[in-house]
Amino acid sequence: MSEAVPALSPEQMRSLLQTMYRIRAFEEKVDELFMRGEVHGTTHLSIGEEATAAGALQALRPDDYITSTHRGHGHCISKGADLKLMMAELLGKETGYCRGRGGSMHIADVASGNLGANGVVGGGIPIATGVGLSIKMQGLDRVCLCFFGDGAANEGTFHESINLASIWDLPVIFLCENNQYGMSMSVRKAMRCETIAQRAVAYGIPGERVDGNDVFAVYEAVAHAAARARAGQGPTLIEAVTYRYKGHSKSDQNRYRTRDEIRAWQERDPIKRLTAYLREHSLMTQEEIEREEAAAYQAIEEAYQFALASPEPDPDSLLEGVYA
Amino acid sequence: MSGPSSLPTTVATGAPQQAEAAQSQVQEMTYAEAIREALREEMRRDPRVFLMGEDIGIYGGAFGVTYGLIDEFGEERVRDTPISEAALAGCAIGAALTGMRPVAEFQFSDFMAIGMDQIVNQGAKLRFMFGGKAQVPVVFRAPLGSGTGAAAQHSQSLEAWFAHVPGLKVVLPSTPADVKGLLLSAIRDPNPVIFLEHKLLYRYKGPVPRGEWTVPIGQAEVKRPGKDLTIIALSIMVPRALAVAERLAEEGIEAEVVDPRTLRPLDEETLIASARKTGRVLIVHEAVLTGGFGGEIAARIAASEAFYYLDAPILRLGGAETPIPYNRTLERRATPQEEDIYQAARRLLQRRPL
């Protein structure tokens, strides 16, 4: 973990742990449901990447905006989403956040500032830039946090949007979750430059690379970027280096990486690191930590039961929501 | 007759019908001026409305449509963008999603291909994917069409691409009055609207009601009534069809010219009613015939009760199966001209009732 003492209260640290446990419990449940064939389509799990989402959202205010990615459950939960409505969405139920129309890849809660997961790599980056423009033109004291992956950093939208945000000093935080692979392609093969953060130089904005499995480091970087954005100093590019334990999606056979590599990253598990810190600094006892973990799995089970009991959408409502 | 200079400076328009408020006066102005007036009026009325696009500020846009607006509204609301069409499209969508009313201008509609993911996969679908809990009130304006010698990458008519996508509305105004009225409606519409302006039309003049004047999206208009055949024309083909109708009238034939004005949602009732009335239908657009929107119109008519009133098969006239060439003669040959429409109308009239 970070050497510096994080600027977080013990309550905030416990809240971070709660969020990270909830993300993991949610995704383990989703994995299980897919395996059992209870949900269809596909899903992209972020198990192992929880610190990035939780740390980033801890640094923002409730009325700030986010845009998310196909691997977005963690962002959604960290933004404060209702687990029941999330699980109902994954089960395609009418009570879900998107009335069962979106599913895992499109969960959104616009009312709370969550502008949605996105099924197109790099698709949310221009939208986040527009949100930044909207904030600026309306004179609001908000920021937009734009999540995307290492794969998106090679999309044209990444370059076009960061350039636009930089020339207009928009209050946007571009947060790249570098989990090492764009589906199967290693980031080392996909780009010549050493880091994604260094691409910030090309747009004349700060770029910072942090340990994405260190929740405090992510928090600090995003808090700093948010302060800059609110002060009218424009966007920041943050690269959080992390790793997904599970495959890209349901179809992934893990042919492109080794078990040793996965194991090595599991040694640096973000939840393990946070719990170790909390114990070492006597902020939580092992018993309290276990209670937090159990509570997360319990909350997910309740969400699942809610989703199971929820109604399916009425087939006659098919066309609702196409147009306003 | 290939350049704007050789086109008629005044074309007939349907009488303004849908004024929401009392019209104080009507003024003769060009299509481009009517767009500018709509933008100016709406920006004065609604502080959420702003413009973004390439060279729309001091330069005034590649076709001069936004000329002078930066003087009144400043560079915050008349926002020049870098040459980044994907960011332009997505940025407008993001702003619309969070309370603004952006009008984004693409310099040429061909360049919308660069922003297509944002328009089709994002803007058109966000509301639906989010369970109807979001709105994307954005207008994408763009010039389309050939006739300026701009060749294959600056001359296409791609309206059918957009009309194929649920979640988008697609508008192709053909007169100065319509372009103003439909643009006001488009900006006020809570959905993404693709607003396609034929670049030859920019210099056409016509009467335009001043002040509050809206034309509803999704409403076709009979531009000229007739009983012998129906010519359904899109965009630049409307003035050409009206000129042909004039010529046919001299020969004692009364052609009805119908302008759908909006492709999605399509006002099929008006088209079907006209087909039923005349029994002969010619559909004309500049877009390439294969996959062109005329096929959709023909199918809607053929599948309706108008089928039983048809005295001849529905005839479609569209662009040749080629990219738009540079050479002036070839360029004209690639898209329907007045003479082509006249000949097609004549062929249609020669077919005897079954």
TrEMBL record, chain A:
InterPro entries xref list: DH_E1, PDH_E1_Alpha_Subunit, THDP-binding
Keywords, ordered alphabetically: Oxidoreductase, Pyruvate, Thiamine pyrophosphate
Record-annotated Dehydrogenase E1 component domain positions: 19-315
Gene Ontology biological process: pyruvate decarboxylation to acetyl-CoA
Cofactor(s) named in the record: thiamine diphosphate
Name used for this protein in its record: Pyruvate dehydrogenase (Acetyl-transferring) E1 component subunit alpha
Pfam families with a match to the protein in the record: E1_dh
GO molecular function, one term: pyruvate dehydrogenase (acetyl-transferring) activity
Keyword Ligase: no
